[in-house]
Amino acid sequence: MAYVIAVAGKGGVGKTTICAMLVQHLLKIDKPILAVDADPNSNLNVALGLEYEETIADIREEVKKQTPESFSKSEFFGLRLEEAVAEGNGFDLLVMGRPEGPGCYCAVNNILREYLARISKKYKFVVIDNEAGMEHLSRRTATDIDLLLLISDPTMVGISSAVNAFNTAKSAGLKIKDIVLVINKSKGGLESDKLKLIENAGLKIGGYICFQEEIQKNSEKGKGVVEADSNLENIIDSLFKQEEKINIIP
Ligand SMILES: Nc1ncnc2c1ncn2[C@@H]1O[C@H](COP(=O)(O)OP(=O)(O)O)[C@@H](O)[C@H]1O
Ligand SMILES: [Mg+2]
After folding, report:
1. What is the 18 CA–ligand 2 centroid distance (Å)?
2. How many beta carbons lie within 10 A of that of residue 165, not counting itself?
3. Burial class of residue 157, CB neighbours in 10 A (0-12, 13-18, 19+)
4. CA–CA separation, 71 and 52 (whole Å)
5. Range 3-245: architecture per CATH
6. For ligand 1, what atom is nearest to the CA of residue 17?
7. Among the listed ranges 30-34, 38-42, 128-132, 205-209, which one has the minimum average pLDDT value?
8. Distance between CA 98 and CA 55 in Å, rounded?
9. Any idea where the domains of the chain sit in the sequence?
10. Are 17 and 210 in contact (CB under 8 A)?
11. d(CA 110, CA 226)
């Protein structure tokens, strides 16, 4: 079974950047890796330096409207989804695309969930770049999540949003083994009121990633993320070490 890491948090806090860094770091541990861009404002491919042709949303529409008679919906969806996987070096990318339009998508979403659960088994790690809301994480993925990284910048708005996501994740009954807050774009420690908010919510701080101008400049130029930040590597390695003790690591 793949070890599934989902990344969530307010827009602009660095989710996509961190997902791309995660892929770079995890490649050193084990492969293959599946990166899933579950943000409707898809741009994980840019950070990963990979082109893609189709989104799952495009295929979902196609299956809903025109499954050829010789196929069942499920067979056709499976075939088309396989074509939508973009292949990188040691990792693949699936782009979810925009949310569904009006009408009922239950049947296709069920097929999609089964498909994602099935293909996830082929990978050692699955990394999901999520949008801020937690709802579609459960709607679109049937797999349990081993680690949810909530990302925030050092602002009160970012932290409140991470705390809300934490509470939603808990109340939505998602199966998540571990939830950790990562403060990105850090310029030093956090003020006591912010620390208090995090502590009162019962949220753990996994660590801090420093603000680095180079990261921002590279993304402004449309350059991909070619290596992981050492702060992030330490955060992940120490989380894995803790988990090994309690045997969650595959
Ligand atoms: N640690 C960091 N230091 C400096 N800039 C960062 C850092 N992390 C992310 N950024 C920049 O912040 C912007 C938003 O990052 P992005 O990963 O797209 O956020 P999100 O996916 O959460 O919307 C990008 O310009 C990115 O380069
Ligand atoms: Mg993003």
Report:
1. 9
2. 25
3. exposed
4. 25
5. 3-Layer(aba) Sandwich (3.40)
6. 17
7. 128-132
8. 8
9. 3-245
10. no
11. 35
Pull the structure tokens for residue 228: 């992981």
pTM: 0.92
Residues with CB under 6 A from ligand 1: 9, 11-17, 184-185, 209, 211-212, 215-216, 219
Residue 179's pLDDT is what? 95
pLDDT in tens, 58-116: 998 888 888 788 988 888 888 898 899 999 999 999 998 887 666 666 777 777 777 87
CA distance 60 to 169: 26
Pocket test for ligand 1, best of 216, 217, 229 (most atoms within 8 A of CB): 216
DSSP labels, the chain = -PEEEEEE-STTSSHHHHHHHHHHHHTTT---EEEEE--SS--HHHHHT------HHHHHHHHHHH--TTS-HHHHHHHHHHHHPEE-SSEEEEE--SPP-SS--HHHHHHHHHHHHHHHTT-SEEEEE--S-SHHHHHH--S-EEEEEEEE-SSHHHHHHHHHHHHHHHHTT--EEEEEEEEEEESS---HHHHHHHHHHTPEEEEEEE--HHHHHHHHTT----S--HHHHHHHHHHHHHHHHTT---
Asked whether the predicted pLDDT for residue 143 surpasses 70, the reply is no
Enumerate residues 6+ apart whose C-beta is below 8 A from 135.
Answer: 168, 172
